[in-house]
Structures are given as structure tokens and as C-alpha cells.
Amino acid sequence: MNGPFIPRNIDGCRWCVRFLSGVLANVKGMTSSVPILECAEVARLADADLPRLLQELEVQSRQLHLQKLRVLAECVARGATAGYGTVSSMLQDTLNLGRGEARQRLAHATSLVPSRTITGADIPAPLTRTGDAAGEGAIGPEHITEIHKALTTLPDSTSADDREHAERVLVELARTAPPHAVAQAGQRLLAHLDPDGARPRDGEPGAPRNLLRRTTRANGRVVGSFDLDAESAALLDAGLSPLSKPRPADENGPDTRTLVEREGDAFADLLAAALRSGTLPTEAGEQARMTVTLSWDALRTGTGAATLNGHAPIPVAEIRRLACCAEIIPVTLTGDSLPLDVGRAHRTAPRALRRALEARDGGCAFPGCSTPARWAEAHHLILWQHGGTTTLRNMCLLCRAHHALIHNSHWEIRMAPDGHPEFLPPAILDPERKPRRNAIHTQLAFQDTN
Q1: Which residues pair with 339 in a beta bridge?
Q2: pLDDT over 80 at 113, yes or no
Q3: CA–CA–CA angle 370, 372, 374 (5° rounding)
Q4: How many other C-beta atoms can be found within 10 angstroms of the C-beta atom of residue 91?
Q5: d(CA 96, CA 232)
Q6: Rounded to an integer, what is the distance from CA 225 to the centroid of its chain?
Q7: Is pLDDT above 70 for 212?
Q8: Distances (CA, A) of 332 to 291, 337, 347
Q9: d(CA 289, CA 307)
Q10: How, if at all, do strands 290-295 and 328-333 pair?
Q11: Are the CB atoms for 373 and 358 separated by under 8 Å?
Q12: 353: helix, strand or coil
């Protein structure tokens, strides 16, 4: 809060005085057992005392949260708004809360705190067990949110016994588990109690909609978010899981990418694999492709920038890697920005050649890499723009990471006399530059055979 609560009118001020005088004593009594510790005092505590103190403070904080809900429920019961139109608007203005937070607290207060009838008879709280656990300090606000969310989404046809059982299960779990585990348990309970799901209303489609929001930045990067149904989310998890595992340590050391970075790279690999698959719907009679547009000078010198699909800027140096990948159509422009040469997609490996590469390399051919063939890209040993041919002896499979490494480092690839690719490390890694091969895929193939 920015400062003390200053009522907007005289009635609000009178209410404030009466209200505060009745509860301040209780609040002070409840918090008097919690010492006010200065930083210097905390610094003198023993190591073993710090976790215990944190636990005690957390219990006190959770109990204080329930006290706030009780005060809020009383405001609702009395209509005590301090001159504001609604209790929600009072909370937003006097406590500096957002609208969503104010509404959530109101919902929790009316669910966890008992109420009264007009005649003064007590009405039990809808979520009595949740309120009791909160009063003990056993569960916190996030637990309450997940329990409330789960129980309020149960269908109207759910019996009272089933509702009581569901609350008991969730509260007992919340005493020992974090909020996200309570949320997952709530989803499982909902699936058990309402296996068919909510019936779609008239005019609404029966299947959930999948949403994708994306924006292209000036540098060509795309940012956005998506909202997937459970089935689509499971497909995404199945695709990301094998691709986002940390890579084994190699000459460059262990995989230092964070989980977010690994899943981002895995998502890009999924998109590349879908484009290479040839199963996407056609557009204007052609398979899905990417078009790179660049000037003749940029192609000749290897410097400058190009555009990808007409709008995304990309360095010319990156085009060398892309030119080995799925369905890339290069469009070279003269100085007058007229198309000089439009390449065709045959620079990529045809299906028969792709199968031959998979049979020979088994996966990424880089030494020590276990990426399977279905996630690898076909690379030209002698680059296409340097006269290289799309043949078995001039190509090998590389995963996305090692494909970029080959294009951006001093690693070299050559074809051995026996027709298998071998890799020459940079002199900084091996002064003798002894050729290396990937033996992982042949070992896996031998194990599969046996």
C-alpha cells in the first residue's frame, strides 16, 4: 500500500473507526507472538534456527491470510464498503489490488468463512475443510486458489458426498504437496467425476479450440504464446521430450543450455522435421517451402543480409546452412532487384537419396552424437553454391546443432575411401587433426539386430 487508508467521506470514516476499534486488539494479539527481527538479529541466528523460523513465519502468514478473509467476509455480510459502490472496488482502491486479485479474495472469503442468515443462524462455509486447514496454517493462498478452482469447476450434477470427498482429498494433499500438485489432482478428480466433460452450449463447437498468438519483431524473431487442449499438449510433450534432453558431453564440454533453451531448440527441430516430411498440405499446388531472397553481390561475397519468406532478415552466412535443409528456393537478384536465378528444390536430397543417407549414417554423423536420422538434416560436403552435387558421396546427415557447428567453425568433413563421412577437428582441439567417425549408430544398429 502507498499509505494509510483515508476514507472518502464522513460515513466511511465513522465506519472505519468502529470497525478498526473492534478488530485491532485481536490482530495485535495474534501477531504479538511473532518477533520483529532486524537484519542484525537474523544474522546472529544459528544455521539450524533459520529453517525453523521460516516455517513458523509461514504458518503465521497463512493464519493471517485467513484472518483477512474473515474480515473481508464480514464486509460482504454487512455491506461495509467505506463509501465505495462495491466491496471489490473498495479492495482495489484501499489495498492497491488488481481487479482479478480482489475478485479472487472475495471468492475465497465467501467459500472459506461461515455466513449467517437474516435471522442470525449460522451457515457453514462451503469449503469448511479448506478453511480449517488455512486456520491451522497448513495451507497457503496458492493452495486455496487451486482447491477453490478445482471444486468450483465440478459439474452441477456432482453429489454432495462426492464434493465433500473431493475437498477432503485435495486438502489432505495440500498439507504436504505444492500447489501445482493440487492443481493436477484437481484435474484428475474432475476427469473422474465428469468423464464426458461439460456439454457444449448451443452454437459452440464440441472440441476445444487451440490458440496461437505470434508477433514478428524487426530482427525477424517471432515471439508469442499458445493455448492447447490436453490432446494437443500431449502431442507436443511427446515431440519435445526426446529432442530436449541434454546432449552428452563432447569436445565442447557438457550441454550448458537451460531447459527453456533446450525446449526452444526442440520446437524448432519439430518444425523443420514437419517441413521435411513432405506430408504438409500443398499451397498453390506446391509443397511447403521457404524462399530466400538475396542480391548477387551478397551471394558472391558471402556477406550482407537476405530475407526469408519475404520479410524475415537473415545473414547470408546462415543461408549456407539453410541451403542444405528442407525445401529452400533461392532467389538471386541483380543490382536492379530483378530475379537473376530461381533455384529449384532439387538441391535437397530426394526421398530415395534421403533413405540411402539414413541407411548409411544411421543418424547425425558427427562423432559422439546420438540424434536419430529422423531429426537430422542432409548436408552437402562441398556446398551447393560451390559446385557440390546432391549425391550420396557428397552428403551426410547432421543434427541441427552440429549442422550449425560445421558451417560456423573450423571442423571439416571428408568422405573416406569406404564411402563413410569422417570429421577433421580444428587444430586447436587436435593439432594432428586425426579423422573421427561416429560409431554410436552402428552400435545401436548391431544391438537392434541382436
Answers
A1: 333
A2: yes
A3: 160
A4: 22
A5: 39
A6: 9
A7: yes
A8: 11, 9, 15
A9: 14
A10: parallel
A11: yes
A12: helix
Residue 289, phi-psi category: left (phi > 0), alpha (psi -120 to 50), beta (remainder): beta
CB neighbour list of residue 22: distance below 8 Å, 6 or more residues apart? none
Cβ atoms of residues 382 and 326 within 8 Å: no
Residue whose C-alpha cell reads 556477406 in the numeric block: 303
Query: Distance (Å, rounded) from C-alpha 331 to C-alpha 342?
Result: 5
The number of residues making up the chain comes to 450
pLDDT at 338: 40
Which amino acid is present at 45? Answer: L
Of the candidates 379, 351, 391, 368, the one whose C-alpha atom is nearest the C-alpha of residue 441 is 368
Neighbours of 445 (CB within 10 A): 13
Distance (Å, rounded) from C-alpha 162 to C-alpha 168?
Answer: 10
- The pLDDT, as a whole number, for residue 242 is 86
Q: Where are the domains of the chain?
A: 10-193, 234-247+255-275, 289-348, 350-449
> For 348-364, what is the mean pLDDT?
80
User: How high is the pLDDT of residue 396?
Assistant: 93
Q: What is the pLDDT of residue 322?
A: 65
Distance CA 113, CA 101 (A): 18
The answer to whether 217 and 209 have CB atoms below 8 angstroms apart is: no
Closest by alpha carbon to 328, among 302, 353, 357, 294?
294
